[in-house]
Amino acid sequence: MKTKLTVKSIEALQPADKDQIIWDAELPGFGCKVTPKGRKSYFLYYRTKDGQQRRPAIGTHGPLRPEAAREIAKRWLAEVAAGGDPSQTRKIDRSAPTVNKLCDRYLEEHAETRKKASSVKNDRRIIDVHIRPAIGAKKIASVARSDISALHHSLRSTPYEANRMLALASKMFSLAERWSLRPDNTNPAKNIDRFREEKRERYLSPAELKRLWIALNSPEAKEKASDSAIAAIKLLILTGRRVSEVLGLRWEWIDFKAKTMRLPDTKGGTLFVSLADSTIAVLEELHQSRQARLERQKNAKPDEDSELNPFVIEGKRQGQPLVNLQKPWRAMREMAKIDDVRLHDLRHTYASVGAGLGMSLPLLGRLLGHSQPATTSRYAHLAQSPVSVAANQIGDELIRLATNDQHP
C-alpha cells in the first residue's frame, strides 16, 4: 500500500491481525509499520552498495512527525548514495565506548602502571568527582571541546583543581587517539586556556623557625604528639623532603656511616640525599630508641623472635608508618604561633635558606630532587650573587682577624 505519509493518513490507520506496511508515495523506501497493538513507527528500506538489505527504524509516530521522519530518511539515502550504510553506522555508534570506559582504561592501563600510588589516588578523585558526573555517559568520539571547556569553566572558583582536571582530561583523550578511540588530532581538551594560579610563597622567618624548633623540643610537645611525629617535622625542616618521602622512609635506606639516605620512589626517580649532622642526630635518637625497644622485647620474651617496625616514622599500627601529620602539626604550629604555615612550607623554607646562602639553582634542584629546572627557578629571587657571598665571607674573615688576632 502506498500513500503520502501525513499525520492525518497515519492516524487514520487501524491495527490488524498482523503488521501492516504503508509506503510513502513521495520517497522510495520510506514507510510506516503498524503493529497489531496499534504501535506506529517509521523506517527506511535500502540496499547497500554490495547488495545487503537494510531496514533501520527511524522513530515512533507521535514523538516523531512524518515530515521530520522523512527528512531523516532523506539524509540516510544520501549517505547510501555516497556508499555509506546508516544502519551499520548507528550500530557502531551504539556500541562505541563511553568516557566512563576511557576513565577505567586510563586508570588500569596507564596510571596504575606508570604513576605513584598517591598520584593514582588523586587522578581517581578528579575522575570520580568531576569527569564522570559531567561527561562520563558520553561517547568518547562525541565529546567536543565545548564539553571540556564548560567543565573547566564550572571549576573556575578553584583554579588549581580546574587546571589539574584539564591536564588529566587532555592526557586521557591523547591516549584515546593512541588507542584508536578517536581520530588523530581531535583532542577536545587542547587549546583551552588554563586559569591563572597564584603560587603560594611562604617561608619561615628566622624568628618563626626559632619558635618552632623550641616548641618541638619542649616538654609540652611530647604531651601533644608522639616522638615519631615530632621527629618527622624535624626531618622535614632539616632535609627539605616532601611529607610522603619522610613518612615512607625505611631504616634500610639510611646509611649512617656515609650520612646519606636513598629514596627509591621520588617524583624524579631514585634519589640519594646527603644528610647534615643535625639530621643524623635526629635519626640516631630515633634509632637508639628503636634498639632499646628491641632489647626490652627480647628480655620480656627471650624465646620469641622480635620484630621492629621497618619505618623510620612509626605509626600506631604494628609494622606501619605514621600516615598523617596534620594533627601533631596543628599542635606544633599553634605552640609556635605560625598558624598560616603548611607542612610543605617547610620545604620552601629549606630552599629559601639554601638560596640565601648563595647556593646555585642547579645545586638546590639536586638537593630538593626537582626533575625540572623550572621548578627550582621560583627561588631565584632569593639567591645572593656569588660576588655578594664572597664579599661577606672576606669581610667576616677580616673582622675575625682584626678582633681575635690582636696581641697585647
TrEMBL record:
Gene3D superfamilies associated with the record: 1.10.150.130, Integrase, DNA-binding domain (3.30.160.390), Intergrase catalytic core (1.10.443.10)
Domain Tyr recombinase intervals: 199-392
InterPro entries listed in its UniProt record: CB, DNA_brk_join_enz, Integrase-like_cat_sf, Integrase_catalytic, Integrase_DNA-bd_sf, Integrase_DNA_bind_dom, Integrase_recombinase_N, Integrase_SAM-like_N
Key words, A-Z: DNA integration, DNA recombination, DNA-binding
CDD domains: INT_Rci_Hp1_C (cd00796)
GO biological process: DNA integration; DNA recombination
GO terms assigned for molecular function: DNA binding
Domain Core-binding (CB), chain residue ranges per copy: 97-177
Domain of life: Bacteria
Family indicated by similarity: Belongs to the 'phage' integrase family.
Identification of the protein by name: Tyrosine-type recombinase/integrase
Species this chain originates from: Tsuneonella aeria
